[in-house]
């Protein structure tokens, strides 16, 4: 139980740190990203939207319950890991497109 509590707090903090890092990089390379393109099919935004909204909902629920429920912590960990993997895929794709990688 304590391991899941620690892991849930650690991974959610990692998600927020990575968001700050990506935000910093986006601000630094704002000039290069203006012709990176846009998403033509709006249906492609459903999975990331569901993933982000479920992360927010799970994080708020776990924070209200003070990370004491093991099942909720496990769901938050899995959702956070998927969000990190999805974010890394988007990050590498954009940086390859603008010529940094």
Task: Please provide a written account of the structure.
The chain is mostly helical. 74% of the residues lie in helices and 0% in strands. The chain has 3 helices and no strands. The chain is elongated and about 45 Å long. The mean pLDDT is 88.
Quick structural summary:
This protein is an all-alpha fold and 101 residues long. 74% of the residues lie in helices and 0% in strands.
Helix and strand pattern: HHH
* CA(first)-CA(last) distance: 41 Å
Helix tally equals: 3
> What portion of residues belong to β-strands?
under 5%
The helical percent reads over 70%
Radius of gyration: 16 Å
What would you call the structural class? mainly alpha
Largest sheet: none
What is the molecular shape?
elongated
Could you report the average pLDDT, rounded to the nearest whole number?
A: 88
Low-confidence runs of at least 5 consecutive residues: none
Number of strands: 0
Could you list some keywords that capture this structure?
mainly alpha, 101 residues
Provide the fold topology:
Blueprint: H1 2-28, H2 46-64, H3 70-98
Helix pairs in contact: 1-3, 2-3
């Amino acid at each position: 139980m304590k391991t899941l509590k620690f892991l849930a707090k650690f991974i959610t903090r990692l998600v927020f740190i990575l968001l700050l890092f990506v935000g910093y990089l986006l601000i630094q390379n704002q000039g290069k990203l203006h012709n990176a393109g846009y998403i033509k099919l709006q249906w492609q935004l459903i999975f990331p939207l569901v993933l982000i909204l479920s992360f927010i909902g799970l994080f708020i629920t776990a924070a209200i319950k003070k990370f004491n429920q093991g099942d909720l912590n496990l769901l938050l960990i899995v959702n956070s890991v998927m969000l990190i993997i999805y974010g890394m895929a988007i990050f590498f794709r954009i940086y390859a497109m603008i010529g940094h990688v």
